[in-house]
Amino acid sequence: MDKQAVREAVWDAFDAGDQARFPFPPRDRIPNFAGADAAAERLAETEAWESAATLKANPDAPQLPVRRAALRAGTTVYVAQPRLRDPDPFLRLDPAEIPPAEIDDATTVSGIGEYGTPTAPEDVDHVDLIAAGSVGVTTDGARIGKGEGYSDLEWAVLRELGAVDADTTVATTVHELSVLDGPESAAGADADLPAPDAHDVPLDLVVTPERTVRTDTPYPRPDGVDWDALGAEKLSEIPVLAERAPEEK
User: Fold this and answer.
1) Which of 93, 153, 201, 202 is the most exposed place for a label (fewest CB within 10 A)?
2) Does the record carry Mitochondrion as a key word (predicted)?
3) What is the pTM of this model?
């Protein structure tokens, strides 16, 4: 199976069952799932969570409980703007500036834009923990997103600046359907799963409502932006890359 075939298998499984949660349909997105709250609670029990002062999270619905729990715990949260479209592409949610009664509003997709402070990559604090959204994962840390590649680009930009590094834990919260080598795998027990690409960021923790997997991943982390893989059109669409591209690009 290639990555798109894996995505289709996961989306088909969510379509066919009763595990999907709003927004619908679950296709062409990071699927929200029954038990997302429980998975967030499991993540909050890990040492990586307890020691984190700063979290970068994706803005998708299944990680909403993670964002809320982080702010309630006093953790600074960064969320990237969609498609890195702004020159200051990270929105900073500071728990010291958001009243507890407003945390629920501040962590929704619309609320992040209202409460978040646009921040340039150079001004992002060191990120201790990343909560990534995933369509499919494996227990050795491979991750497949929805196919646009922005999560990996966010890592690459921040890695160039030292805001993420070997000390940054990368986690995801998913339904067991998305654990491709797990007992409820949407891909099937005998699926020939694709290997990660060089720009893919591997996972240290896979957290479902039922279990927490420490992957001990064998896959290397990208050490920056693969400029040779980015065409002129992609650069022109993403100001943060266009401004920082080597001159020969």
Assistant:
1) 202
2) no
3) 0.96
